[in-house]
């Protein structure tokens, strides 16, 4: 498993780089083991690595998939304060999370921010907002 292999790597005095750590975070996030993903995230400094947009994008999506909207939003704020730009994947996760809470004003604010930072949002983002508005009768 990933954790055992990572442990062997560290025990062999092989320092992981940000790419290795991001692969671990992505794997944990995709398998919805978010506490493990967040543990790696909080240890990144110990390995002398610098967070990047990929790190945050994987975590935000994983947190969204676990309906941890508040945690995803906190991570989004940390991402911005670290100078990283969210990807379409991160914005889609945020817009979807916020839409599911019924805060359409906030969802549209993120949609607008996405347009400003990345250009035209993809179909998934628009579909998410329109679908949630329709379901709420707005």
Written overview of the protein:
With 138 residues, the chain is mostly helical. The protein has a single domain, classed as Serine Threonine Protein Phosphatase 5, Tetratricopeptide repeat (Alpha Horseshoe). The protein has helices at 2-11, 18-30, 34-43, 53-65, 69-81, 88-100, 104-118, 123-135. Helix 3 packs antiparallel against helix 4.
The low-confidence parts are none
Strand content: under 5%
DSSP, total strands: 0
What is the string of helix and strand elements? HHHHHHHH
Regarding CATH, which class? Mainly Alpha
- Look at the structure and name the CATH superfamily: Tetratricopeptide repeat domain
Domain module tally: 1
Average pLDDT: 89
Q: Can you describe this structure in just a few lines?
A:
InterPro entries: PPR_P_subfamily, PPR_rpt, TPR-like_helical_dom_sf. With 138 residues, this protein is mainly α. 72% of the residues lie in helices and 0% in strands.
Topology:
Elements lengths: L1 H10 L6 H13 L3 H10 L9 H13 L3 H13 L6 H13 L3 H15 L4 H13 L3
Key attributes of the depicted protein:
single chain; 138 residues; mainly alpha; Serine Threonine Protein Phosphatase 5, Tetratricopeptide repeat; 72% helix; elongated; Pentatricopeptide repeat-containing protein; repeat; PPR_rpt; TPR-like_helical_dom_sf
């Amino acid at each position: 498993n990933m954790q055992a292999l990572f442990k062997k790597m560290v025990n062999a005095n092989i320092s992981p780089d940000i790419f290795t750590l991001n692969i671990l975070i992505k794997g944990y996030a995709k398998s919805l083991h978010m506490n493990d993903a967040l543990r790696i995230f909080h240890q990144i400094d110990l390995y002398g690595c610098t967070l990047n947009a990929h790190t945050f994008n994987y975590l935000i999506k994983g947190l969204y998939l676990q309906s941890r909207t508040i945690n995803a939003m906190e991570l989004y704020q940390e991402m911005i304060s670290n100078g990283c730009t969210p990807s379409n994947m991160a914005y889609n996760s945020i817009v979807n999370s916020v839409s599911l809470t019924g805060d359409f004003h906030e969802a549209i604010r993120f949609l607008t921010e996405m347009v400003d930072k990345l250009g035209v949002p993809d179909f998934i983002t628009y579909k998410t907002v329109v679908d949630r508005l329709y379901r709420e009768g707005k």
